[in-house]
Structure formats: structure tokens, C-alpha cells
Design goal:
Elements lengths: L4 H32 L1 H22 L3 H24 L21 E2 L2 E2 L1 H15 L2 H6 L23 H17 L8 E4 L6 H13 L5 E5 H13 L13 H6 L2 E7 L6 H16 L3 E6 L3 H7 L2 H9 L2 E4 L5 H8 L1
Parallel strand pairs: 3-6, 3-7, 4-5, 5-6
Antiparallel strand pairs: 1-2
Helix pairs in contact: 1-2, 1-4, 2-3, 6-7
Length: 331
């Protein structure tokens, strides 16, 4: 689970607040019942006294007396439940209150994360990635192969855009299903409007919901962020500029969208290499999309960057009709 320290703290506070609020609810119920049914207070006093005696007997090794006291506790507890029902309350009205009855609001069951904790983690990862609303629209459930034609043939690959996309999507599922087992990086290249960003978002959604940390940045955002780090700029007006360097380098998946749209110079070349190389060393995956061809990538970036992205990335050319235009005329 690729959470930052701050995200762990946020989730911890969520559970602490949840337990505190439920305790306050229970205390309010107890005061209410004690006032309307005074006998319940006496039942609770007796149960508490018997429980203390049972503990003392157990510590002294008198197990038979402990078992007898347990029977007394259960008998009085039954009388208490009957009194609650007789006065219009549910039998469990004074039981402890939990948002999650599986883990009792601890987040763990037998040392393993409860489903409620997994959901909290996903919520935190979504909020950090700034992708939640986008991924609700762009995911494999909404992916449409109809935008890829059997008649659009790539001369170099010798296959149709539909065949190509079927292969790419199959590999994307392989990438997702083996993300924690096999280290891999992806490079999607091809002209604008062919669905590269949509495909990236499909992958991001699946991995976030598996509790992996995903940071999505356009190339322009990435280099803004790297400039902030390098020149010690403190401009935190956007969420993405609050991402720390260690998060950028250590998150489970870094997505760099639209590489090549930034204004290139020696700084961008050097900082991109350092970022990609650091993540490669620590086997942290990267997905890059670009409208540039492989030839253009080689021309626009240094040989060492081109070597990293072609030698250590699984590259797919995404081609076909312009989906934006197709959508315009089909809506």
C-alpha cells in the first residue's frame, strides 16, 4: 500500500475520530436509559462488579469460580436486555457502536487490513492523484473498441487499429494483474486523439483500487514540479505542486502524460533523466504517453533518455482515427 506518512496519519485520524464519535453516541444512550429506566444502571453495576470478581478469580487460578461468575453475568445481562425491550429499546441499544462490525473500527482483522481500511486507502490515493472524477468517466468499463477500425491499417505494423488496440488492452490487463510481481514500464506513442490518455486513466483506476499509489502529471506539470524542487520555489497553489520529491520518486506508479509538450532545455533534459533513472534503480514503474514518434523522441531528447525509454519500457504505438472527432459526430 503506497501511502505517504501524511496519508497514514489522515486514515489514523479517521479511525480515531470514528471511535470517539461512537463512544460519545453510546455515552449519550447510557445517560438517556439510566434516566428513563433506573433498573438498567443497577444491572450494569452488578455486571461490572461480577466481571471484576471474575478477573480476580482467574488471576488466582480459580477457574471454576470464574465460570460460575460468567454464568451470573450472562443471567443479569439477559435481564438487562429484557428490561430494555420492555421499555421500547432494542436489546442491543447499549452495546458498543461500530461503523464496521467486522474490525470493530480498528481497520484490521487478525492482523490483516479490513475491507473498510482498504476503502479508506483507496479514497486517500484518489484524492492525492487528482484523478477521481476523471476516472469515474474514463475506465475499462467505459472503454469502447468501436472507436478503432478494422480498416485503418498501419503500414509499418501491418495490422489494423482495432487489432492493435485489442493487443494493447490485453497487455494493460497483464500489466495491472502482475504489477506487484513483475517490474515493467509502459510507453504509449502516436498522434493526438487516438486514446492514449484514456488508456492511461483505465490503468490508473485499476491500480488505485488495488491500493497502489499513483501520481498523474502532465509533462508540463512534472517539469514545473521539478523546477520547484531544484530552485526551491514555494508555490503551492495547486495540489500537484504539494507533491514531495520522495513521493514523486517512490510512488508505485508515476504517469507522465503528453511528454514533448513542455518547453525543452538542458534543465528539462537533465531533470527528466534523473527522475526516470532514480525510479528505474528502485524498480518503480512509469507510464509515459507522447504524441511524438520514436524518431522524434530520439531527436528531442538526449541519447541517455531515449535509451532509458526504449530499452526499459514496453512501447506501444497507438494509432487510428481521431476519437475526439468521431465522438463529435456520433453524439
Amino acid at each position: 500500500m503506497g501511502l505517504s506518512r501524511e496519508q497514514f496519519d489522515v486514515i489514523s485520524n479517521v479511525y480515531n475520530n470514528r471511535r470517539l464519535e461512537n463512544k460519545m453516541k453510546l455515552d449519550k444512550r447510557i445517560r438517556e436509559v439510566y434516566e428513563s429506566v433506573p433498573a438498567i444502571r443497577e444491572y450494569d453495576r452488578q455486571i461490572s462488579s461480577l466481571a471484576m470478581n471474575a478477573t480476580r478469580k482467574a488471576l488466582a487460578g480459580d477457574l471454576s469460580a470464574k465460570n460460575s461468575l460468567r454464568e451470573d453475568i450472562e443471567r443479569i445481562s439477559e435481564q438487562k436486555r429484557a428490561a430494555l425491550l420492555a421499555h421500547g429499546y432494542s436489546a442491543d441499544y447499549l452495546d458498543e457502536i461500530f461503523d464496521c462490525n467486522q474490525c470493530k473500527d480498528t481497520g484490521f482483522i487478525n492482523g490483516y487490513p479490513c475491507e473498510c481500511l482498504k476503502n479508506e486507502i483507496v479514497t486517500q490515493l484518489y484524492s492525492r492523484s487528482e484523478l477521481k472524477e476523471v476516472l469515474a468517466r474514463e475506465n475499462f468499463d467505459t472503454f469502447n473498441f468501436n472507436f478503432y477500425s478494422e480498416d485503418f491499417i498501419d503500414e509499418n505494423l501491418g495490422i489494423s487499429s482495432l487489432e492493435n488496440m485489442e493487443t494493447v488492452v490485453d497487455y494493460c490487463h497483464y500489466f495491472i494483474n502482475n504489477f506487484d510481481k513483475t517490474f515493467d514500464n509502459l510507453l504509449f506513442y502516436g498522434r493526438a486523439g487516438t486514446g492514449k490518455t484514456f488508456l492511461i486513466n483505465c490503468i490508473a483506476k485499476e491500480l488505485i483500487e488495488k491500493s497502489f499509489s499513483v501520481i498523474y502529471l502532465s509533462a508540463v506539470q512534472l517539469f514545473d514540479l521539478l523546477a520547484d524542487y531544484s530552485f526551491r520555489r514555494s508555490n503551492n497553489t495547486s495540489v500537484y505542486r504539494q507533491i514531495r520529491m520522495d513521493e514523486l520518486l517512490r510512488c508505485d506508479l508515476l504517469i507522465i502524460d503528453d511528454l514533448g509538450t513542455e518547453m525543452g532545455n538542458s534543465f528539462t533534459d537533465s531533470s527528466l533523466f534523473d527522475c526516470l533513472n532514480e525510479r528505474l534503480i528502485h524498480q518503480k514503474s512509469v507510464i509515459i504517453s507522447t504524441n511524438l514518434s520514436l524518431d522524434d523522441l530520439q531527436k528531442n531528447y538526449s541519447e541517455r533518455i531515449f535509451s532509458r525509454t526504449t530499452g526499459n519500457y514496453t512501447a506501444f504505438k497507438i494509432f487510428g482515427d481521431d476519437i475526439r472527432i468521431k465522438k463529435k459526430f456520433t453524439n
